[in-house]
Specification:
The complex is a heterodimer of chains A (378) and B (397). Chain A is of the alpha+beta class and 378 residues long. Chain A folds into three domains: 114 residues, Butyryl-Coa Dehydrogenase, subunit A, domain 1, CATH 1.10.540; 105 residues, Beta Barrel (Butyryl-CoA Dehydrogenase, subunit A, domain 2), CATH 2.40.110; 145 residues, Butyryl-CoA Dehydrogenase, subunit A, domain 3 (Up-down Bundle). Chain A is 51% helix and 16% strand. A four-stranded mixed beta sheet of chain A has the order 1-4-5-8. Chain A has a four-stranded antiparallel beta sheet with strand order 2-3-7-6, with no helix packed on it. Chain A has a two-stranded antiparallel sheet with strand order 9-10. Chain A is globular, with a radius of gyration of 21 Å. Chain B folds into three domains: 104 residues, Butyryl-Coa Dehydrogenase, subunit A, domain 1, CATH 1.10.540; 107 residues, Beta Barrel (Butyryl-CoA Dehydrogenase, subunit A, domain 2), CATH 2.40.110.10; 149 residues, Butyryl-CoA Dehydrogenase, subunit A, domain 3 (Up-down Bundle), CATH 1.20.140.10. Helices cover 43% and strands 14% of the residues of chain B. Chain B has eleven helices and eight strands. A four-stranded mixed beta sheet of chain B has the order 1-4-5-8. A four-stranded antiparallel beta sheet of chain B has the order 2-3-7-6, with no helix packed on it. In chain B, α4 runs antiparallel to α5 and α9 runs antiparallel to α11. The radius of gyration of chain B is 22 Å and the shape is globular. The N and C termini of chain B lie far apart (45 Å). Classes of the chains: A alpha+beta (378), B alpha+beta (397). Chains A and B meet through α7, β10, α8, α9 and α11 of A and α7, α8, α9 and α11 of B. Bound molecules: flavin-adenine dinucleotide. The site of flavin-adenine dinucleotide has 19 residues of chain B, from β1, β3 and α11. Flavin-adenine dinucleotide (FAD) binds next to β1, β3 and α11 of chain B.
Chain lengths: 378, 397
């Protein structure tokens, strides 16, 4: 399989790009922000995602989805990134769908149709500390009655306050730091004892702190095996990290495009600033980093779709590269715009803020480089 | 969709079996130093396994897998060539033959050469019979290559070439040279022609230059009334700059391969672990170096994916024509970073210059050699200029 989009994928990109650019350009995100809107995304837009089949992209055709893979999901995510579109697509259609696929038939039947129809939004409740450290999952799930009682806190849960479904990593055994003893749960939004406190982040998105105060769930809320959830969680993390990297690809592509346009239009000293070699070289270097990152992300997506044993390593590389490159793209973007880059009116700063949030989400570049080192035995 | 996939898998299986049966065990070990690289040529001194491996691969045209079979190439499709590369990598097979003929001149001849030139030169490149060197740079023409002065005067059925080249890699070991000469002094790029001649021609002399690595891989090359038959002009008179640039694209592609690492005996983390040791939990006992190595490995793996993508796009004719500049820039800067880390990982061991244990100072000399990667084939700054101008289309670049 060549490492570029095949014809069907290119066609999807040709559809997704104008669709998202028309339905939800940066102005859409600004509108939600300026109205201090409290859902965090547009439900109308989400319904249109469903009409396009995007919501159920990864769902098998037998369940009403499109049966596509990470490459295709990445195409949509790149456009989301390019337009800074607030959307629960990553957490719902990529993260939750992947989690549910590893669950019992009852769970998939309960949730997938709603996701495909655009009626269900899901969130991933993984992080507990200020940094993404999934192995340190400590939120307690004790056996109780016919199910479990969940006690503890989660944070940085995008869409957590509006999600109908929460995919929760909890500890049923072992100590924080150990892979064994982690269990994944599918928790419904109005579970008793669950409170979500949304918080606006730098990029104007909403992420929640979740408090689980003895939340009672049935045994059939368990996704996969009790105590054996690490493998399932790893699969979810692999796809959402790769998906985040794809979204970041869109963020940096837009930042570079905007910056190159500016270099070609702004004049100082009687010439276009793009004729200064100091800026040319920085833009060219950024281009190189972005090309290499794009290849790393596509590689991870293809390996995930092929169920290749090297996929996990590739996802670590993809998210680490995306973290470094997007950070570079938005920083260079603001700097090369000069003063106007610092204004709220101009879009480049919005990309800087979104890039920062995505760099942190599901682990930053240092985290992933460290994971890669552990993987390689040093 | 199914038939081609099956066909490629059949090809892959057959190739694997053939490689297993035909690649001598000695040729499946990592290279120890540059001396293990087979360059071919009239004066090549090959070990028995090197000779066997070269001859067997050349007989199938697999030293140049995707060249047309009419010129001795393998005639493979892009997918087959990729499968061959992958299967060779899996078995750890060394490249049977490296040469400027394969990576630079051949592609230029295939595009710009006459039928007679192709028939004459390509099969010898495939079989490693003739070793080529590159006569581009001159003392006054480096990054500004088109400023070259070596002249070729029209003398009826031949040219008379006079002038000097510099940094000519392996000029003292090469059999033939592809050379840029000035055939019109009134215009810059439009006065350059591309010619081929035998380094044994009367009037050619070379003088090796000692490098910081202690080796002398390149030379000053002098031409004193060298006669070059007109049949050896590639492309049209005064249109050599097109050929030269086309060839440079292939040179950059080849040099970018440096970014993939040479596949030495030990990986970078292994070198560091052996030299420094590990903490009880297995982590390298030097957090700063560990973090630097890890970040490097992220970039190296990403570049590996980029190389695969670039090759796939190239073969499908979807790559931007200036993309080799990006590859060359990234790959060479990456290789320099790799060798800085190899030195840091090796510590004082890596400083040894000529002991046997150090394989003749392989680490230190290798490190110094890589500093040339971002200079040869056009400097990093020149590649960035090209990206800015041709890909980003920035003004006045
Ligand atoms: C190991 C090695 C092998 C080589 N092998 C060969 C060979 O086989 N055949 C051959 O013909 N040549 C060969 N070369 C020569 C090589 O192509 C030249 O060294 C190279 O093109 C640079 O030219 P220069 O050395 O004259 O440096 P200069 O052009 O003088 O450059 C000096 C510095 O100025 C910078 N600079 C120059 N112009 C610009 C610009 N426009 N913008 C920004 N910065 C600029 C350069 O990037 C560099 O940093 C080899 C070189 C090396 C190091």
């Amino acid at each position: 399989m060549p490492l570029f989009l095949n014809d069907d994928q290119a066609m999807l990109a040709d559809t997704a790009r104008p669709f998202i650019a028309e339905q939800a350009p940066v102005g859409h995100m600004r509108g939600l922000r300026d109205a201090a809107e409290l859902t965090g995304f547009s439900r109308d837009l989400w319904a249109r995602f469903a009409e396009m089949g995007f919501t159920g992209m990864l769902v098998e055709e037998a369940h009403g989805g499109l049966g596509l893979g990470q490459v295709e999901a990445g195409i949509v995510l790149e456009e989301i990134g390019r337009n800074l579109t607030p959307s629960p697509f990553l957490s719902t259609s990529v993260g939750a769908v992947t989690a549910l696929k590893g669950g019992a038939a009852a769970l998939t039947e309960r949730w997938l149709p709603g996701i495909v129809a655009g009626e269900v939004v899901a969130a991933l409740a993984i992080d507990e500390g200020t940094h993404h450290r999934p192995l340190r999952t400590a939120l307690k799930a004790e056996r109780s009655g016919n199910g479990f009682r969940l006690t503890g806190d989660k944070r940085f849960v995008a869409h957590g306050h509006v999600a109908d479904l929460l995919i929760v990593a909890a500890r049923t055994a072992g100590a924080a730091g150990e892979p064994n003893g982690i269990t994944l749960f599918a928790v419904e939004k109005d579970a008793l004892g669950l409170t979500a406190t949304p918080e606006r982040l730098a990029d104007a998105s909403l992420a929640s702190r979740l408090a689980f105060d003895g939340v009672q769930v049935d045994a059939d809320a368990v996704i996969g095996e009790v105590d054996g959830g690490w493998a399932a969680l790893s699969r979810v993390l692999a796809v959402v990290r790769t998906g985040t990297a794809a979204e970041m690809g869109g963020v940096s592509a837009a930042a570079l495009a905007m910056t190159v346009d500016y270099l070609k239009s702004r004049k100082q000293f009687g010439v276009h600033i793009g004729s200064f070699q100091a800026l040319q070289h920085r833009a060219a270097h950024l281009y190189a980093e972005m090309e290499v990152t794009r290849a790393a992300v596509l590689k991870a997506q293809q390996l995930l779709d092929a169920d290749d044993p090297h996929a996990e390593r590739a996802t670590l590389v993809a998210k680490a590269m995306a973290g470094m490159t997007t950070t570079l793209a938005v920083q260079e973007g603001v700097q090369m715009h000069g003063g106007i880059g610092m204004t709220d009116e101009y879009d480049i700063g919005l990309y800087m803020k979104r890039g920062r949030v995505l760099a942190e989400m599901f682990g930053d570049a240092d985290f992933h480089a460290d994971q890669l080192a552990r993987h390689s035995g040093y | 969709m199914n038939a081609p996939v099956d066909a490629i898998e059949t090809f892959r299986a057959e190739t694997r079996a053939w490689l297993e049966a035909n690649c001598p065990p000695e040729m499946r070990r990592p290279l120890r130093s540059e001396a293990d690289v087979v360059w071919g040529g009239r004066r090549a001194q090959l070990s028995e396994p090197q000779r066997q491996w070269l001859d067997r691969m050349a007989a199938r045209g697999w030293t140049t897998p995707d060249w047309p079979s009419e010129y001795g190439g393998g005639g493979l499709t892009p997918q087959q060539a990729k499968a061959l590369r992958q299967e060779m990598a899996k078995l750890g097979c060394r490249s049977p033959l490296n040469s400027f003929g394969i990576s630079m001149l051949g592609p230029a001849l295939l595009t710009y050469g006459t039928e007679a030139q192709k028939q004459e030169h390509l099969p010898k490149i495939v079989r490693g019979e003739i070793r080529w060197c590159q006569g581009y740079s001159e003392p006054g023409a480096g990054s500004d290559l088109a400023g070259l002065q070596t002249s070729a005067e029209d003398a009826g059925d031949h040219f008379v070439v006079n002038g000097q080249k510099v940094w000519t890699s392996y000029a003292d070991k090469a059999d033939w040279i592809f050379c840029l000469v000035r055939t019109d002094k009134s215009v810059k790029q439009g006065g350059i022609s591309f010619v081929l001649f035998d380094m044994e021609s009367p009037g050619v002399s070379t003088k090796p230059i000692l490098l910081i690595s202690g080796y002398s891989p390149f030379c000053e090359t002098f031409f004193d009334d060298v006669h070059v038959p007109k049949a050896n002009l590639v492309g049209e008179l005064n249109h050599g700059w097109d050929v030269a640039k086309y060839l440079l694209g292939h040179e950059r592609e080849m040099i970018s391969g440096m970014g993939l690492g040479g596949g030495g005996h030990k990986s970078l983390p292994e070198i560091a672990l052996d030299a420094i040791g590990a903490e009880p939990d297995g982590r390298l006992d030097d957090p700063g170096l560990r973090a630097r190595i890890a970040t490097f490995e992220v970039r190296a793996m990403a570049f590996q994916a980029m190389s695969e993508r670039f090759m796939d796009e190239l073969k499908a004719r979807r790559a931007h024509p200036a993309q080799p500049s990006m590859m060359k820039y990234y790959g060479t800067e990456l290789n320099k970073a790799r060798h800085e880390l190899i030195m840091a990982a090796g510590g004082s061991d890596a400083l040894a210059w000529d002991s046997e244990a150090s394989h003749g100072g392989a680490a230190a000399r290798g490190w110094l050699r890589t500093k040339g990667n971002s200079i040869e084939g056009g400097t990093s700054e020149v590649q960035l200029n090209i990206i800015a101008k041709r890909i980003l289309e920035l003004p006045g670049a």
